[in-house]
């Protein structure tokens, strides 16, 4: 996709800060509702955390009723958009296996499956042999797994570009290379956004700046509890199709549950678990570490070697496959691992849409739809409560 440099408009109904998967989804859904949107991205579309994501849109990792309902609704929207948009973003319900390699992990998998079944997600328990029949790359260390057929796969860069293209077609102005440097207020109203390329008059700013959202919030004097949590990933050589769906090791789920993020690198404790997807072009995408390392997004020897070790353990047939690239990104994480979506306390023209952690692809569509509803005043306020900024009492 080419991005002709668009001039900064002098005014907009809504200015969206950030051109990741969240900001572009918001630009799309707001434009679809007839709102004049200007999206500002200091780098390029998808250049932030979105370009470092794996390729999963998972339900099986959402063990709270709120998160599961949110993910279900978002995946249903992604189904519709995949039919409507002009180009595929490789969204497919290929299913996922949550696999256990020890008795302790097997207990975790069974507990998670029981919770998900109570919440209404169709998951099926399989033993080691059945797991290997579903996913032949799995080795003998896998004792059993739970299988969720509704879990999906998606290409993050195709998704962000699809939102961006569709938003533009509906009239949104997507200005890249434009850094927001300040936000002008009059009392409790927003009046303008200042950038390195000039000023835009607006009454509404949506903060979709991912791990940088706290810096944008500081421009209006607000604290936003979103911090970066580094994740390292590997990509292997492309191969003929060897598996379908996403493999999630129980270690990954345990790692996800145990981590918190910090804005600095004071407690750099790394946890690791495997997620594995074979993408459309045949490469295996191997995730991921979780490490509070501030804004440092470099790969580490320790992170890479731990990923290789765990991969060889759970899928020994891939042990000699060439790793062609390692990269890392920063998940925007809140203290309770739930996004912040809603108007700021005391500053209604400032809308937060960030803190999606390791689920931003999966949650992107529903976030865009909700922000459009917030702007138009049609949002179901009960639905917003779990995402409210006020829950942290930080402001
Ligand atoms: C290792 C890893 C694996 C992941 N795997 C998955 C997965 O499989 N499935 C899933 O659902 N999610 C996954 N995620 C999470 C997902 O990538 C994120 O939740 C999502 O990309 C966040 O999107 P965003 O739009 O909020 O942020 P970003 O993509 O970071 O976008 C924010 C944008 O704001 C811009 N910006 C910041 N400040 C300014 C400013 N002042 N002015 C202008 N622009 C500004 C930045 O340049 C950036 O492009 C993964 C994340 C990581 C790190």
Radius of gyration: 21 Å
The arrangement of helices and strands along the chain is: EHEEHEHEHEEHEEEEEHEEHEEHEEEHH
**Total beta-strand segments:** 19
Specify the structural class. alpha/beta
- The share of residues in helices is 25-40%
CATH class of the largest domain: Alpha Beta
Helix-strand blueprint:
Elements: E1 14-17, H1 21-32, E2 37-41, E3 56-57, H2 65-84, E4 96-100, H3 103-118, E5 124-127, H4 128-134, E6 144-148, E7 152-153, H5 156-169, E8 173-176, E9 180-186, E10 189-195, E11 198-201, E12 204-207, H6 213-218, E13 227-238, E14 246-249, H7 250-258, E15 271-278, E16 283-290, H8 301-314, E17 323-333, E18 340-344, E19 347-354, H9 360-376, H10 381-384
Parallel strand pairs: 1-2, 1-12, 2-8, 4-14, 12-19
Antiparallel strand pairs: 3-7, 4-6, 5-6, 9-10, 10-11, 13-16, 13-17, 14-15, 15-16, 18-19
Helix pairs in contact: 1-5, 1-9, 2-9
Explain what this protein looks like in three dimensions.
There is one protein chain. 30% of the residues lie in helices and 28% in strands. By secondary structure, it is α/β, with parallel strands linked by helices. The protein has two domains: 166 residues, FAD/NAD(P)-binding domain (3-Layer(bba) Sandwich); 161 residues, D-Amino Acid Oxidase, subunit A, domain 2 (D-Amino Acid Oxidase, Chain A, domain 2). The strands form four sheets. Strands 5-6-4-14-15-16-13-17 form an eight-stranded mixed beta sheet. Helix 1 runs parallel beside helix 5, helix 1 runs parallel beside helix 9 and helix 2 packs across helix 9. The longest helix has 20 residues. The chain is globular, with a radius of gyration of 21 Å. The protein binds flavin-adenine dinucleotide.
